[in-house]
């Protein structure tokens, strides 16, 4: 059968040509009317009047057939949708124009202006009658608002998110969590039974990243529960802020509009009513820090208290050096340098190395003057105009040290009481000028007073230890450019532990490792193969046993409960241990026996750590408190109370004057040892904090949580700098900084050690990222592939781009990671059979 070609259609009259160029419903219908069954043109099509034989449904059918024949499937689908939404009444004519091919009947009355002026709006997927009223059937209304529609709508959204490109999936996964919560809270009043099914079906997808909130919403089954539940009430009364790129949001809205009849409209209403989209061109970690719900707590005064705590002045500079001890160290280092210089004359390869004295000055943030190297007395770090001032300050310092030394002979841990309100300002102003020589480049990094923390007198062992630190620092591996050189990790795996091993600690000199067990034993292992023989001639002393299995191992028994934590002193002469029996014990590494038992906690002690200055140690307990102890007192010197739940971890600031605690109440606090008060409160964590560590320069704090998230904080301001993800949803047991403070390693329950670049994606202006190296892409892809292999696709968390490297073990949770003074990373854990 012959048909008109496009060329033949163009040879018709002008009205038909216009109709073929603009395929409207009436125009195409007019063109079809001019074609008879033989494919020949008919002039009757030009004479179709408003009262012609074709109805609106016939015209729509003809147009749909035409579009289907020509292959315009998308236009056909749109026309079918439009024709299904709006019903055109019978014999209802619209004003004609030249494109329709219809001329108005001069005898017909003009259409009503009032009706034509009314806009035809159709915001919902429903049909409308002749009076522009929504036509909704009872079945359609029941289907749209039924509890099953909530499950169908979210299932549709989740399946679409899982099938999306990996580039858009992180943002989509970030936005479907609040949608899930608001759908659940909206479904609870309608049908608690379906709400429980909805929650049980989809909540496992969010337990990794939002496990704490999911657990607290588990008990919500009624409207009264929503009002009483803190998390549910916060979601109901606040909008959830979500940062999303413009492209991803357009993709989401386009998908929901296409599927508005099967649940898309329900999700659109949730987004409109409860979400606060923060639309950006490209999502960065800095933009997502403010995401979530900003719970207004001004009624309870919590926000005012937090701002007041974080506005307290802190002194984050290094602890001042003892002048007499520093001179002794410099004298010994000069002798060592002279010996190295003689050897360097024979060995030309060692001529470019730093001198030990130069390294010591750099460690103390003091400039090195080679011209005055021969005169120790003139090796001052202060410039010539300030020499007179420093001499006066040294005299004051010496007088203060003599007074302190006199006090320390009788009581070395006599920490002065908290100063009065009128004395604080005067003390801070006086100390501001005393520590000028030790202040780093940052003017805010003021050092504490040397009299604020009494310490025992230095011994020859301390001198030997200080020289060893300088040697290791000079020979340390430089980790300035992580794109070219990654840190080396030495992993120690402990076998045949029968799952009884609970903790692990490495000594600062990397010679020993201490392990705690559930049977109350502590085992010491020699890492360098040296002997661990006791200096005691007897194997029993004061009721404590020493069991020597081999020369390289030793077992210490004294606790009556599980040992949860151990810590070596800086000089490796002592070890402290925390136990379930509510006590802390001090052990001698010369005799491997218990020296002191410290009692004071009312519940099990979870963590213990020695001060970097020695002599002091801090504990964290189930009784919601942390405590400060000294080796020569059996009672606590300070009790840090303020947490609302267990204090799980404790760590010291590098200057030894502040203590950091992490708690199950999802907060971290900084305590001043001198006053015993909380001077910083870090909020906004999503899970209990079980590990903390401070950078070597004392400016940043890193916290590890049970949900696998590492948060980096600025201690000075109390603000969060960034979040790092990569351990999945597994707990992070340990953190450690390198010597330069630009690399962080972490170990956790996911059987891996992760290396992080702290310069990347940091909101601090002073932390400039490295220039990108050609071919360098970090370890994000490798981490994703390994996590998918280990835990499956649903339990895999996409890591942040500051993940540099991942080191996987077979089946060994990493209990402890530690950077040595030579920038070698140590890690250890117990193999799980």
Automatic annotation (TrEMBL):
The family database entries (CDD domains) matched by this protein are listed as:
TAF5_NTD2 (cd08044), WD40 (cd00200)
Which residues lie in Polar residues bias regions? 27-38, 85-100
Question: Where is it mostly found?
Answer: nucleus
Origin superkingdom = Eukaryota
**Is the keyword Protein biosynthesis assigned to this protein?**
no
Q: Where are the WD-type repeats located?
A: 556-597, 598-630, 640-681, 682-723, 730-766
A Gene Ontology molecular function term for this protein is:
RNA polymerase II general transcription initiation factor activity
Family per similarity comment: Belongs to the WD repeat TAF5 family.
| GO terms for biological process, alphabetical | transcription initiation at RNA polymerase II promoter
Recorded hits in InterPro entries, A to Z, give: LisH (IPR006594), TFIID_NTD2 (IPR007582), TFIID_NTD2_sf (IPR037264), WD40/YVTN_repeat-like_dom_sf (IPR015943), WD40_PAC1 (IPR020472), WD40_repeat_CS (IPR019775), WD40_repeat_dom_sf (IPR036322), WD40_rpt (IPR001680)
Q: Where do Basic and acidic residues bias regions lie?
A: 395-411
Where is this chain's protein located in or outside the cell?
Answer: Nucleus
Q: Which GO terms describe its cellular component?
A: transcription factor TFIID complex
| Ranges where the TFIID subunit TAF5 NTD2 domain occurs | 145-275
What's one Pfam family here?
Answer: TFIID_NTD2
Q: What is this protein called?
A: TFIID subunit TAF5 NTD2 domain-containing protein
Q: Which of UniProt's keywords are assigned here?
A: Nucleus, Repeat, Transcription, Transcription regulation, WD repeat
Q: Where is this region: Disordered?
A: 1-55, 81-138, 327-353, 367-436
Q: Where is the composition biased (Low complexity)?
A: 8-26, 367-386
């Amino acid at each position: 059968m012959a048909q008109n070609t496009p060329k033949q259609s163009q040879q018709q009259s002008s009205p038909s040509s216009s109709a073929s160029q603009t395929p409207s419903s009436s125009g195409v219908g007019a063109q079809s009317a001019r074609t008879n069954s033989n494919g020949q043109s008919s002039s009757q099509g030009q004479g179709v009047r408003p009262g012609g034989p074709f109805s609106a449904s016939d015209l729509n059918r003809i147009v749909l057939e035409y579009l289907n024949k020509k292959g315009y499937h998308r236009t056909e689908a749109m026309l079918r949708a439009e024709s299904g939404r709006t019903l055109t009444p019978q014999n209802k004519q619209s004003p004609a124009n030249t494109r329709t091919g219809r001329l108005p009947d001069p005898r017909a009355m003009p259409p009503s202006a009032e009706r034509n002026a009314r806009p035809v709006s159709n915001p919902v997927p429903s049909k409308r009658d002749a009076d522009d009223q929504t036509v909704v059937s009872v079945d359609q209304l029941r289907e749209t608002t039924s509890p099953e529609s909530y499950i169908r709508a979210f299932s549709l959204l989740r399946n679409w998110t899982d099938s999306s490109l990996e580039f858009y999936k992180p943002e989509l996964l970030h936005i479907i969590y609040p949608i899930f919560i608001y759908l659940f809270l909206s479904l609870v009043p309608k049908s608690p039974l379906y709400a429980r099914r909805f929650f049980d079906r989809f909540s496992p997808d969010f337990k990794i990243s939002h496990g704490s909130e999911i657990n607290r919403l588990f008990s919500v089954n009624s409207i009264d529960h929503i009002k009483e539940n803190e998390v549910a009430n916060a979601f109901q009364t606040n909008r959830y802020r979500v940062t999303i790129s413009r492209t991803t949001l357009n993709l989401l809205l386009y998908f929901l509009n296409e599927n508005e009849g099967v649940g898309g409209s329900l999700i659109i209403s949730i987004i409109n009513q409860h979400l606060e989209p923060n639309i950006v061109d490209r999502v960065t970690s800095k933009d997502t820090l403010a995401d979530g719900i900003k719970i207004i707590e001004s009624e309870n005064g919590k926000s005012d208290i937090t701002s007041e705590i974080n506005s307290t002045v802190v002194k984050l500079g290094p602890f001042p050096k003892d002048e007499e001890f520093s001179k002794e160290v410099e004298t010994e280092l000069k002798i060592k340098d002279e010996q190295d210089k003689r050897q360097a004359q024979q060995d030309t390869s060692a001529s470019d190395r730093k001198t030990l004295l130069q390294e010591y000055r750099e460690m103390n943030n003091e400039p090195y003057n080679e011209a005055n190297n021969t005169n120790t007395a003139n090796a001052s770090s202060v410039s010539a105009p300030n020499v007179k001032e420093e001499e006066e300050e040294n005299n004051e310092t010496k007088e203060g040290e003599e007074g302190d030394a006199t006090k320390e002979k009788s009581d070395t841990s006599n920490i002065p009481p908290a100063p009065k309100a009128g004395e604080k300002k005067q003390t801070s102003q006086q100390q501001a000028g005393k520590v000028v020589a030790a202040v780093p480049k940052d003017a805010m990094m003021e050092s504490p007073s040397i009299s604020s923390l009494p310490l025992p007198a230095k011994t020859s062992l301390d001198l030997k230890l200080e020289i060893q630190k300088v040697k290791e620092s000079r020979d340390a591996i430089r980790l300035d450019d992580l794109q070219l050189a990654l840190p080396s990790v030495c992993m120690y795996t402990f076998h045949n532990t029968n799952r009884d091993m609970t903790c692990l600690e490495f000594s600062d000199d990397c010679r020993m490792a201490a392990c705690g067990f559930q049977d109350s034993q502590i085992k010491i292992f020699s890492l360098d193969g040296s002997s661990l023989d006791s200096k005691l001639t007897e194997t029993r002393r004061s009721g404590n046993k020493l069991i020597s299995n081999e020369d390289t191992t030793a077992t210490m028994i004294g606790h009556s409960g599980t040992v949860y934590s151990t810590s070596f002193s800086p000089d490796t002469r002592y070890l402290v241990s925390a136990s379930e029996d509510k006590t802390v014990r001090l052990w001698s590494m010369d005799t491997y026996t218990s020296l002191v038992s410290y009692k004071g906690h009312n519940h099990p002690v979870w963590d213990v750590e020695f001060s970097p200055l020695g002599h002091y140690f801090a504990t964290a307990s189930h009784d919601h408190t942390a405590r400060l102890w000294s080796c020569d007192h059996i009672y606590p010197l300070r009790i840090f109370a303020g947490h609302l739940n267990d204090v799980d971890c404790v760590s010291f600031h590098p200057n030894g004057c502040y203590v950091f605690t992490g708690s199950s109440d999802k907060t971290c606090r900084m305590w001043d040892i001198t006053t015993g008060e909380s001077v910083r409160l870090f909020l906004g964590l999503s899970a209990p904090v079980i590990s903390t560590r401070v950078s070597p320069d004392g400016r940043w704090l890193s916290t590890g949580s049970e949900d696998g998230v590492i948060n980096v904080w600025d201690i000075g301001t109390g603000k969060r700098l960034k979040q790092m993800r990569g351990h999945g949803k597994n707990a992070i047991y340990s953190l450690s900084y390198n010597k330069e403070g630009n690399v962080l390693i972490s170990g956790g329950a996911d059987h891996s050690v992760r290396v992080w670049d702290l310069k990347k994606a940091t909101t601090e202006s002073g932390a400039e990222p490295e220039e990108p190296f050609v071919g360098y892409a970090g370890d994000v892809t490798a981490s994703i592939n390994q996590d998918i292999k280990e835990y499956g696709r649903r339990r895999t968390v996409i890591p942040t781009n500051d993940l540099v490297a991942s080191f996987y073990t077979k089946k060994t949770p990493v209990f402890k990671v530690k950077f040595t003074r030579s920038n070698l990373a140590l890690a250890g854990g117990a193999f799980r059979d």
